[in-house]
Design a protein that fits this description.
256 residues, alpha+beta, four-stranded antiparallel sheet, three-stranded antiparallel sheet, 8 helices
């Protein structure tokens, strides 16, 4: 039905269709299509990207393999793209920040995540700073903050100041007063596990091994996307999607 509906529009062009099923049903379908519509059939190996004719004459020039995007492959497998899980876009400035932070914390990601969580309590607490991305908080006002937690926060903001992530104005057992340089840095520190996800994305891009990469996205598998792109029903939050040829890989980043 698909071939019949679009045959007039794709005459002389390549048409890529994903056929699934058992081996017998698949070859029957290929034979019927080839005979009924007088078309040449090719098999694309998803691992090597080699194109081999299944039947008929070998074409003068091999068909060009399309560069599929992650969104197209998700649609081919019956999914829909939902909202991004954060707003960070990787550029040279973000790469520089991630490189400096990875050099500092890659050996202790568990402790780093704990520190991020503790600091996020300040970010979410009563903010009396008038500066954008600025936070001045009395530690005594944060519920269930132990003396150990205060030490963790004091040490962490000192480290972030040394790394150039924040501008530190006051840091003691009473008040922590600091300002993030930008929204990206604030989001990076406020979400545990994001450092590893970003480092994995940057490493994948630098490797040159993948044709398309997407990080931090919600996938909907039963068509229950809301108007604003939120997902309900059967869904997955995927840390990293990697595409190579006609294969899509889903990576989960766990940092303890």
């Amino acid at each position: 039905n698909i071939i019949k509906a679009v045959s007039a529009e794709v005459s002389g062009k390549g048409l890529y269709i994903e056929l699934r099923g058992g081996a017998e049903e698949l070859f029957v379908a290929i034979g019927v299509l080839a005979e009924r519509y007088n078309i040449s059939m090719f098999k694309i190996d998803p691992d090597t990207a080699q194109v081999r004719p299944i039947m008929g004459e070998i074409p003068e020039a091999e068909p060009r393999i399309p560069d599929l995007k992650y969104s197209e492959l998700i649609c081919l497998t019956g999914g829909n793209i939902g909202v991004k899980t954060d707003s960070i876009l990787v550029n040279e400035f973000v790469e520089d920040t991630i490189s400096r932070m990875w050099a500092q914390y890659s050996g202790e990601l568990g402790a780093f995540n704990v520190s991020c969580f503790k600091l996020s309590q300040i970010v979410c607490a009563n903010n009396i700073s008038t500066e954008m991305y600025g936070f001045r908080t009395k530690l005594a006002q944060i519920p269930d903050l132990s003396k150990k937690d205060v030490i963790i926060i004091n040490n962490f903001v000192e480290q972030l100041s040394t790394l150039g992530i924040i501008e530190l104005k006051r840091n003691d057992r009473m008040i922590v007063d600091f300002m993030f340089k930008n929204r990206t840095d604030m989001e990076l520190i406020s979400k545990s596990g994001l450092l590893l996800e970003l480092f994995a994305e940057i490493s994948a891009k630098r490797s040159g091994a993948f044709s398309d990469i997407c990080r931090g996205v919600m996938l909907d598998w039963d068509g229950d996307l809301t108007e604003n792109g939120m997902v309900s029903g059967t869904n997955n939050e995927v840390d990293l999607i990697l595409v190579k040829g006609f294969k899509v890989f889903y990576a989960s980043c766990k940092s303890g």
